[in-house]
Write a structure and sequence with these properties.
Elements: H1 4-18, E1 28-38, H2 49-53, E2 55-65, E3 75-83, E4 93-99, E5 112-113, E6 121-128, E7 133-140, H3 151-160, E8 163-170, E9 177-187, H4 215-228, H5 244-270, H6 272-279, H7 285-303, H8 309-333, H9 343-360, H10 368-371
Antiparallel strand pairs: 1-2, 1-9, 2-3, 3-4, 3-5, 4-6, 6-7, 7-8, 8-9
Helix pairs in contact: 1-4, 5-6, 5-7, 5-8, 5-9, 7-8, 8-9
Length: about 375
């Protein structure tokens, strides 16, 4: 993650300068007012005080075009919410959502859209609920309504008829569960007001912090944007409570080995014939497919590693364990001529992964709770 940050900062700086000192990201937007109704959780409490207590909150909304493309083209759309007093008197909660899909994969991907109500908006990355990490998303109540994305047309359309959303949360492998309704009704009462800043790190709930998966990227882009338009750095920004640089290398190793294991494990599943042309014919093909599927599953777990000390320790256990297992098989059965000598190529790769983990060294101590939680933003 570390290498692309200076390039991203420079790109955002150049965009802001070219746009006449407008922000590089979300340069075109509309400030609106709305109401958020948090629903009673019933017999399934979330474990988050704000969600479990219910209530009605005034919301400042900014609907924006993320890339600032020409208005005739689809663009990624941002839906930023500032929920007043959610964290206490004069302590708002900021939620930044981006046009996305609602599926297990597409909820993590920004998707361009030509219709403001053409699909859901999600945080892309997750929030740490007490029991698990969940993505937060806003689903329009009228997805076929056809709301324009141009700010001037959007304001007129919302004045005639509000836009309503269902706010939901879901972890990997569980269905979406609604926790609130949002009504976006009118343009902001003070159109000449100073731009409203949205910061999901500073404006968050103590028992519902965002994860840190996208924070470094977002901060680099916004820092470059501020430099390009000559804006001052925000006051009172909270730095990460742990050194993200200490986690960058093990996270890179975990995700690289995860991808490697997914590709290697999927090979006999996708094309057993080509696999056998390299590693020899197999008698029990079902066994080869089974071991490939298990390796790919372990790789997927490593690829989705949480960037926390605890998550990386678990990824290292999986990575070192799989590498040692396959290395032992290669070194034991190649000399006995049970498997062909081409498996020594695999042995060299496994040695490389073990060396990579050895070079990582000692991981930082602590877990999610005591290392701090750093959020991400996707507005």
């Amino acid at each position: 993650m570390k290498a692309p940050l200076p390039s991203l900062r420079a790109l955002a700086r150049g965009l802001a300068r070219r746009r006449g000192r407008r922000p590089a990201l979300h340069p075109d937007g509309l400030l609106l007012s709305g109401v958020l109704d948090v629903l009673p959780p019933g017999d399934r409490p979330w474990g988050v005080a704000w969600l479990d207590s219910g209530g009605r909150y005034d919301v400042t909304v900014r609907w924006s075009r993320a890339a600032g493309l020409p208005e005739r083209l689809p663009d990624g759309l941002g839906l930023a919410l500032k929920v007043r007093d959610a964290a206490g008197p004069d302590r708002p909660l900021d939620l930044l959502l981006t046009s996305s899909g609602g599926g297990p994969l597409t909820r993590h991907l920004p998707l361009p859209r030509a219709d403001a109500l053409g699909g859901p908006y999600s945080t892309l990355s997750g929030y740490r609920f007490p029991d698990r990490v969940r993505v937060v998303a806003a689903f329009p109540d009228e997805p076929g309504r056809g709301l324009p994305v141009r700010p001037s047309e959007l304001a007129a359309a919302l004045t005639r008829r509000p836009a309503r959303f269902r706010l939901c949360a879901a972890a990997r492998g569980e269905p979406w569960r609604q926790f609130a309704t949002l009504s976006v009704r009118t343009a902001h009462p003070d159109p000449a007001a100073q731009p409203v800043a949205f910061d999901p790190y500073a404006a968050s709930l103590a028992d519902l912090p965002p994860t840190d998966r996208l924070r470094a990227l977002r901060e680099a882009a916004y820092a470059g944007s501020r430099q390009g338009r000559g804006a001052a750095e925000p006051q009172g920004a909270r730095p990460p409570t742990h050194d993200a640089r200490a986690l960058a290398r093990p996270l890179a190793v975990a995700r690289a080995q995860g991808l490697f294991n997914i590709v290697g494990g999927s090979w006999p599943l996708v094309s057993l014939r080509s696999f056998e042309s390299v590693y020899g014919a197999k008698t029990d093909r079902w066994l080869q497919r089974t071991s490939g599927a298990l390796l790919a599953s372990a790789g997927y777990g490593m690829l989705r590693t949480e960037p926390t000390p605890a998550g990386l320790r678990q990824a290292r256990r999986i990575g070192v364990g799989t590498a040692l297992t396959f290395l032992a098989i290669d070194l034991v059965y190649v000399p006995r001529r049970v498997i062909p000598a081409t498996y020594l190529m695999d042995a060299a790769k496994e040695i490389a992964w073990l060396a990579a983990w050895w070079r990582v060294g000692r991981l930082p101590e602590g877990d999610v709770g005591d290392m701090g939680r750093v959020g991400d933003t996707t507005g």
